[in-house]
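From the pipeline queue, job 12 of 40. The input is one protein chain; the requested action is below.

Action: predict structure.
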Amino acid sequence: MRRLDATADLQPTQAAVADSGVKGMIPIGASDGTGIARPFLDYIISSLADAGIEQVVLVLGPEHDAVRDYYTRIAPPTRVRLRFAEQAAPLGTANAVVAAGDAIGDHPFLVLNADNFYPAEALRYLVHARSAATIAFDRDALVRDGNIDRDRVRAFAVLDVAPDGRLVRIIEKPGDAIDLDAEAARWLGMNCWAMTPALVDACRRVPVSARGEFELPEAVALALREGVMVHAERMALPVLDLSQRADIPAVAARLMATEVRP
């Protein structure tokens, strides 16, 4: 997100937040008198509330005081109880889950990215999941109906899903190592999970990855090897991805008519 892109038509406030790299706080919506620009996280929290979530924990770094200030002083949510967990250093997604688990305790909870807007149907499924679960998103629906092009799909995890819906394995960021047009690469993971204590425990024990981080997909793979059952619900639905500057106008246009009530 910090990488400059002359082709991205951004408002000054959007460019300023993009410079900071805090993608969840990028203003989305009209700021020309026809509407109110709100942080992307407001849209996510509002969608979680629509799905029946009553408590939200934001995992933040110690430097993210602007996020804390916004949600405690400037615009506290009204439909959810919001708390914060601190990830002392950016040690990876599994480490972030551990920080959330320490704040939540021995209860199931959802994990999702702060730079993705997931469809409400997917969130509702995870809210009511009776076991560890994730959503297996249809590759073609992501490209056809979202803002994700086919080249970017190569950066996402491919999910190997058994006929009964059981997650067999995760092929993380396959790149050119797999034929993404093949049926075996049809189902993709977008990092939204119904977490159980067993998966959180795997996040605590997962070894550091080749990239020098503790990564959630590798923690799930560890749990799968140890016999933990994870269900992957197949859904042909889009996800809006706010990974780079060029995504901002497209995501803003898609969310323009969305009612936001965090």
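Job complete. The longest strand covers residues 187-195.
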